[in-house]
Design a protein that fits this description.
By secondary structure, this protein is α+β, with helices and mostly antiparallel strands. Helix content is about 40%, strand content about 15%. The protein has a 7-stranded mixed beta sheet with strand order 3-2-1-4-7-6-5, with helices on both faces. The longest helix is centred in the C-terminal third of the chain and has 21 residues.
Length: about 250
């Protein structure tokens, strides 16, 4: 199976990103008006799309997404501002990791709980095992408004596409929106299971060799197998049935 060719025009990316915000809202991955999903628009200008600061994810549409440059400055006209604390983290990753075309960040309860755990993610469930050698950690340095933290974030991430920001939340990046979503969903699911199982006592350890095999066999991140496009399309169809106004 090969991934279908993706339309990366700005108009198509606006619709796909707006759909992603609505998917997050549908899944309950929201934090009032905070947190962000960003995607790079192809071209030499290094422009990005981000949510308008002040709107809930359920209010994001293709047309009200804000175009910004790598410094977070609004490009063109917008009725809405951008949260500088939000894009500082994203801009560092977009600038420092060549393939990080999409960056997602959440403060879900399960994600924050695991981020605050000294042990971090327990590699003892079906989903965490798939993230073997794919996960990085970055130590908490306060609210991400200081650009000098950027290089340290990039060093912490290395080549990993899922990140636990200690004492903070979860993050993923991908070459496409669906791939970044596939990574984040897997990490979020692992955190939910870890948190739910914490009251049940000791867990069953997964041998490292099995973790390695599970990660190698986890094909949903691989562009040759769609890189999450099929799952994302299914969720987008759900959003369309609920409210297709994000396409506007």
């Amino acid at each position: 199976m090969t991934s279908p060719r993706q339309d990366t025009s700005e108009s198509s990316l606006r619709i796909e990103l707006a759909a992603c915000y609505r998917i997050f809202a549908m899944l309950g991955w929201t934090e009032l008006i905070y947190n962000h999903i960003t995607v790079r628009i192809p071209g030499p200008e290094r422009h990005f799309l981000i949510n308008p600061f002040g709107l809930h994810y359920s209010e994001v549409t293709a047309s009200n997404l804000v175009k910004i440059d790598l410094q977070g400055n609004v490009v063109g006209a917008s009725d809405w501002p951008v949260n500088p604390a939000g894009f500082t983290l994203h801009s560092a990753i977009h600038a420092g990791i060549a393939d990080a075309h999409c960056v997602m960040h959440t403060h879900t309860t399960a994600g924050c709980a695991v981020a605050c755990s000294a042990a971090g993610l327990s590699m003892d469930n079906f989903y965490s095992a798939q993230l073997y050698n794919r996960l990085a950690y970055h130590d908490f340095e306060g609210i991400t408004v200081h650009a000098e933290e950027g290089p340290r974030v990039v060093r912490s991430i290395g080549a990993a596409q899922v990140v636990i920001l200690r004492n903070h939340g979860l993050l993923s990046w991908g070459t496409t929106i669906p791939q970044a979503f596939a990574y984040l969903w897997t990490l979020q699911r692992a955190c939910e299971i870890q948190m739910a199982g914490a009251a049940l006592g000791p867990t069953i350890a997964i041998p490292q060799s099995i973790q390695q095999q599970a990660s190698a066999d986890s094909l949903q991140f691989d562009p040759r197998y769609g890189a999450g496009a099929d799952v994302f399309a299914a969720l987008q169809r759900q959003v369309d049935r609920l409210d297709a106004s994000y396409r506007q």
